Amino acid sequence: MKLTLGQRRILVLFGCGLVLWFLISQVNHYLAPARLYVWVGGLYVTFAATRLASQEGLYASFLTGLLLDAVAPVAFGLHAFLFGIAHIVLVRLRHRFAGDVTIVAATVALLTNLALFVVFTVTQLGAMGESAAVGLRLLMDL
Q1: Taking a C-beta distance cutoff of 8 angstroms, is the pair 47, 36 a contact?
Q2: What is the largest CA-CA distance in the chain?
Q3: What is the reported pTM?
Q4: What is the mean pLDDT of each run of 10 residues along the chain (142 residues)?
Q5: Which partner for 68 in 58, 62, 79, 103 could form a disulfide, CB atoms 3.0-4.6 Å apart?
Q6: Is 48 within 8 Å of 61 (Cβ atoms)?
């Protein structure tokens, strides 16, 4: 079976997401005694949205979201859905910024990370006991 160039790009980006997930998991493991946590959801989406074709990037972001859904205690498909939405928004806006410039790409990744973190916080507040206290704590951690 011969893969097309687009399929190879999707697999490579998914593999990079897998490696990034592993590294961030290790960082979080070592930060756990200090009650710190690192979340880099924006990194999974930004490169695919700014550099790849629209459909290829969407597939890569969605697959990476499914990977994160498999290990997260949230409803299955939430990461994939929100990564897909973030990808679509970034693809619609990518003509407004220079994605090849490193500082611009880093800023877009940080803003995407911020937006995804806030959306995840809002979606998960109902499942937590004291929503106001937990929400305030999460926003202060941000």
Answers
A1: no
A2: 53
A3: 0.86
A4: 86 92 94 89 90 90 92 88 94 84 89 90 73 67 66
A5: 79
A6: yes
